[in-house]
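Sorry to interrupt, but I need a hand with the structure work. Leave the record below and I will have a look:
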Amino acid sequence: MYKKYFKRLFDIVFSFIAIVLLSPVLLCLAILVKKKLGSPIIFKQPRPGKDEKIFTIYKFRTMTDAKDKRGNLLSDSMRLTVFGKFLRKTSLDELPELWNIFKGDMSIVGPRPQLVKDMVFMTQDQRRRHTVRQGLTGWAQVNGRNNITWEDKLYIDLEYVDNITFLNDIKIILLTVVNVFKATGVNTEGMDTAEDLGDYLLKRNIITKNEYLKKIDIAESLML
């Protein structure tokens, strides 16, 4: 009953109230991002949503556009500033996703929307995570976030998909608040950003280089 009829209503009401109440915070963050990181203030990226429909996710940018002498963007770790790390650590960069929730791209609680190129490396069973709206926070986020293995993360996502209830969503929201203050599991251990699924599988010889390149081509075609 909740999953079919009330979860979307809960998302609309919650996101609208949050946008209104947090509007001063959103404005201040926008000004700081503009001053410290430049334009555009909002980072936009295609992500697979419910039923694997591609949507544009909105976040505050956390990296500069610094380039090398050849005009190529520097690595993520070199472009991620102290201020950018602060935004990620506190999850403040995620606040623009409230608009994604309000207009129906996402939900307050659900599996986190991964990259399109992550989706193509998932098994068919793992891709069941896309049978529901992706979330601002989720069961995997309160059980290790980015500092657990991809296998565990996707397994936990499916646990949530198979057991969506109002009480579980409230529990996840409350645990998220606690985890934000603890600021744990933001990045993959030893890395400044989370590791892509394809890179994870290739590094562990679970897939071949040829399989990796074929999947990347598929991902790029989905984003055209």
